[in-house]
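Session log. Operator J.P. requested a structure for one protein chain; no other inputs attached. Running the standard single-chain path with token output.
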Amino acid sequence: MTFPRLDRHSDLHVHSTFSDGASTIDENLASAAGHGLHTLGMVDHVRRSTDWVPSFVDAVRALDGHSGLRVLCGVEAKILDTSGLMDMPADMPTLDYVLVADHQLPRPDGPMHPRDAEALLAEHELSTDEVIADLVEATVNALGCYDRVIVAHLFSILPKCGLHEDQVPDALVRRIGQAVVRHGAVVEVNEKWSCPSRRVVDLLVGEGVPITMSTDAHHEQRVGRYDYVTSTLAHLTADVTAEQAVDETAAGAPP
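Structure written below.
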């Protein structure tokens, strides 16, 4: 499976009424076509108890090729603890990918609500270093949960705990990047949560991590609409455009 990278005409993280989205998969498809996308990833939230994934996959697969779009199908699940245990059904039909997400703070003994983490941090019963170390450890260990993984909204849980991704040391970002490459995974830059930052993206790219664009849209009007993502990746997309121009010139195309 090859994912679009640094391509504003793709959106690999769009939710529907199958979980907590406001729009149907058909409405999302129509919006994607109207916004000029060529690739759309339909991804809905699951838990271990979710039983509708086969119906969801069948419905999404039926849309592939409609309006000239490549339509991919995945699920989004949260990391439960530092071992990388994921909150998703044990048996699922074949998916194009799984989004690994930090919806709560994964700790050694299970997920912690970010408000509880923030309170413990304020009371000095939990340290910033512990929070970041647990999150990094959990993310690295979760990468093996499926054959094809996209890391969703990396570090989005930190502001909810009263922290910021700037507090994550470069070495730990690189550790995630090395693990992503080792597992053949991908990291998204997420429009809804405005993360990760350019610093984190550049560190990941330095480790060879593939980067893709996603809106995390929960309404059809947000599908394929980028602002934070395009500004954060502008320097990288400019490099990609320049490389493509060189390749075309070398192949004899008009400059």
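Operator note: Residues 9 and 36 are 6 Å apart (CA to CA).
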